[in-house]
Amino acid sequence: MDGPGLPGTPTEDDARIVAHVDMDCFYAACERLREPALDGEPLVVGMGFEPGESHGAVATASYEAREYGVDSAMAITEALDRLPRKVDAVEDPDLSVEDAGFYRPVDMGFYESVSEDVREILHDHAGVVREVSIDEAYLDVTDEIEWKNADEWGRRIKTEIEESVGVAASVGVAPTMSAAKVASDHDKPDGLVVIEPGEVRPFFADLPVEEVHGVGPVTAAELAELDVETAGDLAAADPDVLEDRFGERGLEIYGYARGEDDREVTPRGKPKSLSRESAFTEATSDPDEVADRVRSLADSVADRATSKDALYQTIGIKVVTPPFDVNTRARSLPGPVDEPPLVEEVALDLLSEFEGERVRKVGVRVSKLSFAAGEQASLGGFGGEGNDAPEASDAADEAGIPDDTPSEGQATLAGTWAESADGADTDSSRRLDGQTTIEDFCR
């Protein structure tokens, strides 16, 4: 590793292999799944552009929309000034149809369903995964690959995400979490950058200082007052001066610029749900084929729950019909159980509603997980009157929304896996009160 390392920093011989997977303009990519005609068009996802609405913000702007100056977190009124809606331009002779774009409202439930598909792939490719938002995660693949295979591994996971889910990801691989995040941002969109041990500091040398993980606009401006303009300048700065100016965070970003970061990739506690999904090569209306697939998924999910000593109280399915309509159904049990046959029985019963429909993808999910020791709930009451209608607390399950989704009063455009623990910049433009802001999502 370049330069003297901090205590616990891996050496070149035992460096971890960390990947950061970041979905490109994720909300816009999801909307294009539903409407392929939006491919290549300027697309803005946000709130406030609908008739009667006067306030709102941009959640995601596609790269085509960015060419018109539209960006994440921008007021929707400003976005409309820079990029009028197509529907308005068609009716207004003073507007150019060619210089107009498409606007779509945020549909978090749909984005979560696509995110789950991506998440399944990530867990298939790494033993340790830390999801930090709806569209990004860190993976420790030290035990899965060697450095000589890192580029091939990165291309393989990118290809599987694009072919199986239909969205593009940028991947960065490096010996530290902070360097991996910088690598994934470096060649967006659809990028793949591998920084091997010993190459972190040279790679960082000429990068603008704000590209260092943990450095936002406010910190960058303060660093400029110290004549620190690049990551190389930061790596060569006097650590005592940085500590005096920024406290412990000054030493933290100094270490990141030098490739020193001893944080380990750790999962975010116990899962709140477990699911498996599978797509058909072509949409099918064969009920036997669909049912067989659901049986296989139900067995897989139940086995995973048993292996994790997890009890579940809600069993649900997801059925995707052409072109990309996501339908979810769920049933709550009297209490948490570990009953694999029941998962299959309930899943097939819920599936019967879709008999005769063309199906392109199915999924099975168990949620409201419990890891507490003790006897599971009696099944005597299952199937009784009222069990098909979930209680108010199960509304999220019925809607197909993961259990860790914030309540209505807490939800943010950033999604449901937000956190601020991974060396997050404390500048208000980046994160506030532990929540990831919308501008973190589409870089």
Describe the structure.
- The two termini are 28 Å apart.
- This protein has three domains: 18-24 and 111-257, Reverse transcriptase/Diguanylate cyclase domain (Alpha-Beta Plaits, 2-Layer Sandwich); 42-100, 3-Layer(aba) Sandwich (MutS, DNA mismatch repair protein, domain I), CATH 3.40.1170; 273-398, DNA polymerase, Y-family, little finger domain (Dna Ligase, domain 1, 2-Layer Sandwich).
- It is built from 15 helices and 14 strands.
- It has helices at 26-34, 63-66, 76-82, 86-91, 108-125, 150-164, 177-186, 200-204, 217-224, 231-236, 239-246, 248-257, 287-307, 340-351, 395-398, and strands at residues 18-23, 43-46, 58-61, 102-105, 128-133, 136-140, 169-174, 192-194, 273-284, 312-321, 325-337, 359-367, 431-432, 435-436.
- With 443 residues, it is α+β, with helices and mostly antiparallel strands.
- Residues 1-11 and 378-443 have low confidence and may be disordered.
- The protein has a five-stranded mixed sheet. Strands 9-12-10-11 form a four-stranded antiparallel sheet, with helices on both faces.
